[in-house]
Amino acid sequence: MENKLTDTDFFLTIQNKGTSEIKISGSRFLGFAFPVSGVKEADGNLQALRKQFYDATHHCSAFRIRQEPGRLITRFSDDGEPSGTAGKPIFQVLEGSGFQNIQLVVVRYFGGTKLGTGGLVKAYTQSAKETLSGLTPKKEFLFITAKIPVPFDFVSGFLNLCGKYEVRTGTPDYTELPVYPVYVLPSEKDRFQTALKEFSNGRLLPVWDE
Description:
alpha+beta; Ribosomal Protein S5, domain 2; Alpha-Beta Plaits; 2 domains; five-stranded antiparallel β-sheet; elongated
């Protein structure tokens, strides 16, 4: 069976950190990309860069952090640059990339020449794009979880069925009979549940986590 992933099954994030440096009219723009899983982590990254580059003129940033299917927490900051010239362009690059659970910070050392609002937008956009260019994308799967009590005489067939629907199984908890934790892609939940019912004549009943 060919399993075609949908956008309910996964989102794209980044596997590694990234950095870049560009110089425009004497100003240095240092870009830093981080995979992040929460706002607290993103705030910690920003504070660490402020401490490391304490003598920089600006520390502009943006992030897109997934909290649950279909919900993103987003934030961007100009950090003293003219409104809309730094944080928003960085965020727009992030948004265009499709990445989630990602933070991008651009540290600027002013070089003595003012770039104007258009020049700043262009510079921060370029820095953000340069920083993202060396990153490795990674799929983060959005499994639905359940526990399924499986009588011993059903175990072999149950595991074969899981393989057909690309359902991941964890180590069973043994009480009176094995109870398997399973991890199911959202797009496969209904088909897997129907196949499970047909295979076991309704004896295998998953208890889905909310």
